[in-house]
Amino acid sequence: MRLAVVALLLVVAAAHLLLPIAPLREAQAIDPGLANLILLELRLPRTLLALGYGAALGASGAALQAMFANPLASPDISGASSGAALGAVLGGYWLGFSQPIALAACGAAGALGALAFLVALAGRRSDTATLLLAGLAISLAAGAATSLALALAPSPFAFYDAFDWLMGNFTDRSLLQAAAALIPASLATAFLLRRSKALDLIALGDDVAASIGLRPRQLSLEVIALSAIAVGACVSVAGAIGFVGLVAPFFGRQLSRGHPGAAMVPAAIIGAILLAVADLAVRSVHLDRPIPVGVVTSLFGTPLFLWLVLTMRRRVTA
Amino acid sequence: MTSLIARQVAIDERLLQTDLDVTAGELVALVGPNGGGKTSLLRALARIEDAGGKVMIDGEEVDASPPARRRRLLSFLPASRDMTWPISVRDVIALGLDRPDARRIGYLIEQFELERLAGRPVNRLSTGERARVLMARALAARPIALLLDEPMSNLDPYWVLRFLEQFRMAADEGQIVLVALHDLSLLGRFDRALLIADGKIQMSEAPANLMASERFAEIFRIRAEPAGGWAIRR
């Protein structure tokens, strides 16, 4: 099963890079250098971003779910993505940063602020309702603050050019931008994966974990900081993308026999697949204007989210 | 002789400092009114929060021992049986071990009659079934000290007796067994009882002596009925 998932990842990655193939063929016929240019300068950053962002969402979603002991926790529902968007908007339109890496740092700071606020508001072992309501409040507040920051921004075009980006978009990102998102994201994800065993043990409860020498509070700070870096850096380049961080860990746990920490690796792979497929779909549909990829993930993610909420509610009442 | 020695551990925020000595082989029950400090004492002994003082198990200071050694020194069973994730019964027991040991897991599955449930997700079991799984997890690494918070709540009578049997077996094999207890009718099955109230150990006695004492009646606000059972003390 795991092998099949990895194989699927490779197929999706190749498809994302090469499809549609017609423009590449035409360019090849004119000048082989041109085809290479399209592949390296246009297609590769987009493929890497889609796969890397998806993996970061999957892994950090699984880590946050393990830490909050709640399958509905995720970067978007916790408000981290909205916080990151606010951070990047403030950095770009108010502080005047233009370097991708500076914007990535602002995104990470925004995500960190949102997660810290969530833990302060709801606590770590809160019930689902508290967690969702606190996350919703933070998302709404960060969204409103982002709109305000754009409306009052010194640049009159801020609102217009931020729209595409905020909804999640991989179009026309440079290799430099991809690197600014993916280098911090992959480092943070790698550190998260090292905590897989500890996050599995946290499933027995904080007290049991502490009694065998783990430090649950320190672990949760680590998870929060690393998830904020991973998601924040990606949001600063490609916008806030919903539901992948919620859905991928759910499927990841099917492959880790329910273990929440061990689910991080499969969740990362599944997240990469989901986001690359969603972006491929966006690219294949020809409308007058390109659709932001975040719209597609939300369209498909919402039903699964509702289904999860319903099964959880049924289990509580049963 | 294997022992658990606690010096000046603080049970709660009042920071009353407590000393405690338990030797292997005795079954020790912790009793006391709600909020008196039974759970806090167990948590302090398991070094779950910084409770000050020090705890030595078999001559080894718990705080100084590396995580891999901790599982051999002590195991803590919380009163809560909440499990969020759909981890199989077998895997939950395995979480109690440093490295997988199929024979040990198989033995525990048999002891707690979990054969039929071994592959089932633990979050779908009844509370009583989950209590057996989590008890098996706590026993898995054969820790020197077992610190168990209300292990027998929600169990039917058969399993209460089976748990007591397991505790006696553990004590006979040289383990230290401390059990926080709500059901006073089980107290007679223990060798020693600690009466815990207001954040400190008020008495440490053989169960029969403890239950006959005026202090016990005063703290619990009950008195023994001549015909057996308890009545409210007015």
UniProtKB/TrEMBL annotation, chain A:
This protein's UniProt keywords: Cell membrane, Membrane, Transmembrane, Transmembrane helix, Transport
InterPro entries: ABC_BtuC-like, ABC_transptr_permease_BtuC
GO cellular component, one term: plasma membrane
UniProt GO molecular function: transmembrane transporter activity
A Pfam family matched in the record: FecCD
Location in the cell: Cell membrane
Protein family (similarity comment): Belongs to the binding-protein-dependent transport system permease family. FecCD subfamily.
The protein, known as: Iron ABC transporter permease
Protein's organism: Sphingomonas cremea
Lineage: Bacteria, Pseudomonadati, Pseudomonadota, Alphaproteobacteria, Sphingomonadales
From TrEMBL, chain B:
Pfam families (UniProt xref): ABC_tran (PF00005)
UniProt organism field: Sphingomonas cremea
Keyword Nucleotide-binding in annotation: yes
Limits of the ABC transporter domain: 4-223
Keyword set includes Translocase: yes
Family annotation (SMART domains): AAA
Record-linked SUPFAM superfamilies: P-loop containing nucleoside triphosphate hydrolases
Function per UniProt: Part of the ABC transporter complex HmuTUV involved in hemin import. Responsible for energy coupling to the transport system.
Keyword entries, A-Z: ATP-binding, Nucleotide-binding, Translocase, Transport
Protein name: ABC transporter ATP-binding protein
